[in-house]
Amino acid sequence: MDPGTILAVIQLSAKVLELAKFYIETAREASSDLRSILVKTSTVNAIFTSLDFLSSHPTGSSSQLTQLSEPGGIVHRCREILCELESLLPADPDQGGSQDAKKTIKDRARRCRDALAWPLKASRAEKLLNDLDGCINKLLLVFAAESS
After folding, report:
1. Taking the alpha carbons of 75, 77, 80, 81 in that order, is the dihedral positive or negative?
2. Cα 4 from Cα 101, distance rounded (Å)
3. Are 1 and 65 in contact (CB under 8 A)?
4. Given a cut of 90, is residue 22 above it in pLDDT?
C-alpha cells in the first residue's frame, strides 16, 4: 500500500473541504451541490484517514487493501475525482493575501463570474459526486471484508 498516495488523497480532500466550507459560509444561499461536495468529501477524508492508519498498522497480508492503491485502483480514482472537483470550485479569493475590508471591482467581478459559471459546472460536479459514491461504497465493502 502506497502511503504517499493515501496521504495525497487526504490532503486533497482537506483542500476541497476547505473550499466547499468557504463557499457555503460566504454564499447567502449555498447550493445543495456545495453541501453534497462537503458531505461526500468529508466521508472520503474519514475513510482515507482510517485507511492510512490501517496500512501503517498491518495485521497480516491483505490483498484487498493492497489492491486499492495499485495504478488504476480505487485510491487513484478517488484522487482523480477530487482533483476534478477542486478544479470546478473557484479558488478562495482570500488566498491572494488581500486583507482589505473593501473588495476591489476586480474581486467582485471574479466572484460574479464564478457564481454565474457554477450552473454550467454543477452537472459535472453531480457526475463526479456519483462516481465518488461508487468509490466510497467499494472502499466500505473492502473495510467490511477486512473486519470479518
Report:
1. negative
2. 39
3. yes
4. no
**Confidence band for 25, pLDDT divided at 50, 70 and 90:** confident
Work out the average pLDDT over 108-130: 77
- Give, as one character, the DSSP assignment of residue 71: T
Report the pLDDT averaged over residues 57-69: 71
The residue among 3, 10, 129 whose CA lies nearest residue 65 is 3
Encoded amino acid at 120, one letter: L
Check residue 100 and give left, alpha or beta (phi > 0: left; psi -120 to 50: alpha): beta
Q: Shortest CA distance to 34 belongs to which of 21, 47, 15?
A: 21
* Packing angle of the helix pair 74-88, 32-56 (nearest 10 deg): 150
First CA to last CA distance, the chain:
20
For 67, residues 6+ apart whose C-beta sits below 8 A from its C-beta are 73
Please tell me the pTM assigned to this model. 0.78
For residue 93, give the C-alpha cell.
479569493
